[in-house]
Specification:
By secondary structure, the protein is of the alpha/beta class. It has a single domain, classed as 3-Layer(aba) Sandwich (Rossmann fold), CATH 3.40.50. Helix 5 links the parallel strand 8 and strand 9.
Length: 198
């Protein structure tokens, strides 16, 4: 008799302006055996080939790849949203890409990804990093309502405070942290998930 595999926790990092530096710092501070799958979404020019996955691969011990439809999530792996397409997670913990219209003026949109996380039924943590605009605010509220945890980068370390500020104002954020404290907090949250009584 096969037991269903335990649900892989999912961490979503969303950003816009200043995102590369923020992603680099968070992912660079995580160990190779990080016990969650990481989804990375940055607003990118849809017409340009993205080097984001290649750059991040050089800066983290985790395994980084561009997200492809149907991929199954694995702990210790980073999946980067491709330019010009929405990234979502399905209830079966696989990735889906879509060409649906932009949301919050963006495709990929943080709101689309976070909304899918909110209904995916996993242990989920969303992190709203530096960026202009309000993308991610609606989705972060939905993640919290769905039982997930939402962290936001603080104003002092954000190149642009639009996205994390909007998520905070919307009531979608559990904790506001300086950039350097986000990776250690993710480790602590995941440790608590895996050892609820320890």
């Amino acid at each position: 008799m096969t037991h269903p595999s335990p649900r892989v926790p999912v961490v979503a990092l969303v950003a816009s302006m200043g995102g590369l530096q923020a992603f680099s710092e968070v992912l660079g501070a995580l160990p190779a055996d990080f016990p969650a799958a990481v989804l990375v979404l940055q607003h990118l020019e849809p017409a340009r080939a993205s080097q984001l996955a290649h750059i991040l691969e050089e800066r983290t011990p985790l395994c980084v790849r561009e997200a492809v439809a149907g991929a199954t999530l694995a702990a210790g792996h980073v999946y980067v949203a491709p330019p010009g397409r929405h990234l979502e997670i399905t209830a079966a913990r696989t990735l889906a890409l879509s060409d649906a219209p932009p949301e919050a003026f963006s495709r990929p949109s943080a709101d689309v990804l976070l909304r899918s996380l909110a209904t995916a039924g996993e242990p989920v943590i969303a992190v709203v990093l530096t960026g202009r605009g309000q993308d991610g605010a609606v989705g972060s509220v939905q993640v919290r309502r769905g039982g997930g945890t939402v962290l936001a980068q603080d104003q002092g370390t954000s190149e642009e405070y639009g996205m994390p500020g909007a998520a905070s104002l919307a009531g979608g954020v559990d904790e506001v942290l300086p950039l350097a404290e986000i990776a250690p907090r993710l480790m602590a949250l995941l440790h608590n998930l895996n050892h609820p009584h320890g």
